[in-house]
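User: Quick sanity check before I run a bigger batch. Here is a single chain. Can you write out its predicted 3D structure?
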Amino acid sequence: MWFERDRLGVHSMGFDARDQRRWFTPETIAALEAMPPRELDALHDALAELEADVLVEYDPEDAAIDHQEEDRWRMVAPPADAAFPTITEDFAGAIEAHVRSLPPRWRLDGAALAFELVGTVLRPWWTAEHARRTRTWRITARRRRGTRRTRRR
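Assistant: Done. Predicted structure follows.
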């Protein structure tokens, strides 16, 4: 995590799907993948709230921020000891406890990693849901168009 020099933002380093998995145990990932999609979606929302709560703790306009020092942290990954322990139940509570236990420098990264991993696990379900809703909408739109044509004649 680092503060931008323009005093407008606090940033976390983003990770791709493969790098996200480095921070979680295989058991945790398997437990997440076994969860029903609706529960995962609710967990994703809870983790978004956690990330927002952590973000509120940082004030990018703080005059005490040493931007020379902050430049050292730009695009630096969290240390290996910031990795998440094995979590197989009560994901929201356990993830929040782990994020709060991290040093302030790495809390935003920890919250973002958990949020991104759950989003990655949810992506296939979101894609299928979007396709299903699109198909439903198209069928409904066709029916409506067909009924208008018959009324006009």
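Strands lie at 2-3, 10-11.

User: Great, the batch can go ahead then.
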